[in-house]
Automatic annotation (TrEMBL):
<dbReference type="InterPro" id="IPR036188">
    <property type="entry name" value="FAD/NAD-bd_sf"/>
</dbReference>
<dbReference type="Pfam" id="PF05834">
    <property type="entry name" value="Lycopene_cycl"/>
</dbReference>
<protein>
    <submittedName>
        <fullName>Lycopene cyclase</fullName>
    </submittedName>
</protein>
Length: 397
C-alpha cells in the first residue's frame, strides 16, 4: 500500500498543475507527501493537446510556451478584419507534451512527490481519508491510501443540463512552401466559414513562424462531424479562405469540449474531490480551461498548506455561469447569430476588458457595459425562460 497525504489522480493539466504546486516548498508550512497516479502508456493516456490562455508578464510555465501573441484578429462573416492589441496581456499557446516535460522534470527533483503509473479502478472513502484501487501495466494491484484525493479523470457522462452544445474541432499543424503567416498576429476567430443552423463555426490560426501554424476548424453545435467532414472543412478553409497554396501537414489535433450549463460536482466523498474539467473548470461559453484550472488548483494547494479544508473553489462565478447559460440557450435556439454576436463584441468592446470578461474577471458595471453590445431582446427572452427549463441528462459523452 502506497501512503500519502494527498493523492492526485490523472496527469493531465489539472493533475500535473496541482502536484507541481504541492511540490514547491511553502515557508512555514509542513511538507505534504503526494502520490501522482498517472495512466500507464496505452489507450488510457490522454491524446496530445494544445492549451491556450492569456496572461500578463511571465507565468510559471513560461518555459513550456510554444508561442505567444500580443495582437489578436477576428474576421467577421462579411470578411472585414478587426485586429486588436491586447497589451499588457499576451495570448499564449502550450503544447501538452512540453508542459508535461517541464512539470515532470520538476517533480522528479521533489522528494515529497511519488509518481505511480497505474490505471485507477475505484476510489473509496474510508475513515480518515480514501483508498484507491489501481493496477499497474502488468495488471498487478497498486493500492494507494491518502488523507485527500483529487480526481482529474474525464467524466464518463455529463451532468443533467438545460443546454449542452459541443465545441468540436480538428486542426492541422502546417508547413507552407511560401511565406503566408504573420507570426505577430493570432487569428482568434475567422467567421469566413459556412455557418451551421444552430451555433457557429470559425477558423483559428496560431502562427509560429512565416511558414508554420496551427490551423483549426471549430464548431459550436449540437453534434460532431465525421472525419471526412472536418477534412473537407479544413481543406476549404486553408485553400479558399487563407490561400495557403502548397503545404505539408506535420501534425494534427482533434477535440470535443462540452459547453454546458450543467452543475459539476466538486466533491464526491468526505475526502474525494474533482478538479479540472471534471470539476467544472471549463468556461461554458468559450471552452477555455487552462487558466481556470490554475486558479482552481492554487486555491486547493493554499488550503492544504494552511491546514484548511481543501474544497476546490468554483472555477467561475455565479454571475458568469448565469450569463453563459443565457448565451448557450440563445445559440441553441438560433435566436442569435453566433458569428455576428462574437464579431460585434470583439469589434466594439476594448480587447483587454473582453478577455477579462471571458476569464470572469470583470465587475458588474463592466458586464453591463458589455451587455449593451449584445442583441438585448433575444438574450432577455433566453434569461426569462431559463428558470422554467428542466435539467435533462445528456446523452453526449
Amino acid at each position: 500500500m502506497i501512503e500519502a497525504d494527498v493523492a492526485v489522480v490523472g496527469a493531465g493539466a489539472a493533475g500535473l498543475s496541482l502536484a507541481h504546486r504541492l511540490a514547491r516548498p511553502a515557508p512555514g508550512a509542513p511538507p505534504l507527501t503526494v502520490a501522482l497516479i498517472a495512466a500507464p502508456p496505452g489507450p488510457l493516456q490522454a491524446p496530445r493537446r494544445t492549451w491556450c490562455f492569456w496572461e500578463a508578464g511571465t507565468g510559471p510555465y513560461e518555459a513550456a510556451v510554444t508561442a505567444s501573441w500580443q495582437r489578436l484578429r477576428v474576421h467577421g462573416p462579411d470578411g472585414r478584419a478587426h485586429t486588436r492589441d491586447i497589451a499588457p496581456l499576451r495570448y499564449k499557446m502550450i503544447r501538452s507534451d512540453d508542459f508535461e516535460r517541464l512539470v515532470t522534470r520538476d517533480l522528479a527533483a521533489a522528494p515529497t512527490v511519488r509518481r505511480v503509473e497505474a490505471a485507477v479502478d475505484t476510489v473509496q472513502n474510508v475513515h480518515g481519508g480514501a483508498e484507491i484501487l489501481a493496477y499497474d501495466a502488468a495488471g498487478d494491484p497498486c493500492p494507494v491510501s491518502a488523507r485527500w484525493v483529487f480526481d482529474s479523470r474525464p467524466l464518463g457522462g455529463l451532468p443533467a443540463a438545460r443546454t449542452t452544445l459541443l465545441q468540436h474541432f480538428h486542426g492541422w499543424f502546417v508547413h507552407t512552401e511560401r511565406v503566408v503567416f504573420d507570426p505577430l498576429v493570432a487569428e482568434f476567430m475567422d467567421f469566413r466559414t459556412p455557418q451551421p443552423a444552430k451555433g457557429l463555426s470559425f477558423g483559428y490560426v496560431l502562427p509560429t513562424g512565416p511558414h508554420h501554424a496551427l490551423v483549426e476548424y471549430t464548431e459550436f453545435s449540437p453534434t460532431v462531424l465525421s472525419p471526412r467532414g472536418y477534412e473537407s472543412a479544413l481543406r476549404r478553409y486553408t485553400q479558399e479562405v487563407l490561400g495557403l497554396g502548397r503545404f505539408a501537414v506535420v501534425g494534427t489535433e482533434t477535440g470535443v469540449i462540452p459547453m454546458t450549463d450543467a452543475v459539476f460536482a466538486r466533491r464526491t466523498g468526505e475526502s474525494v474531490f474533482r478538479i479540472g474539467a471534471a470539476g467544472g473548470a471549463t468556461r461554458p461559453s468559450t471552452g477555455y480551461t487552462f487558466a481556470s484550472v490554475q486558479r482552481q488548483v492554487e486555491t486547493v494547494a493554499s488550503a492544504l498548506r494552511a491546514g484548511r479544508h481543501p474544497m476546490p473553489s468554483p472555477a467561475h462565478s455565479v454571475r458568469s455561469r448565469a450569463m453563459d447559460a443565457a448565451l448557450l440557450r440563445a445559440l441553441d435556439t438560433g435566436r442569435i447569430e453566433g458569428a455576428a454576436f462574437f464579431t460585434r463584441l470583439f469589434s466594439r468592446v476594448p480587447a483587454q476588458r473582453l478577455l477579462r470578461f471571458l476569464d470572469g474577471g470583470t465587475r458588474l458595471h463592466e458586464d453591463l457595459a458589455i451587455g449593451a453590445h449584445v442583441p438585448v431582446l433575444p438574450m432577455l427572452r433566453s434569461v426569462a425562460e431559463l428558470p422554467f427549463l428542466p435539467r435533462r441528462p445528456s446523452d453526449r459523452p
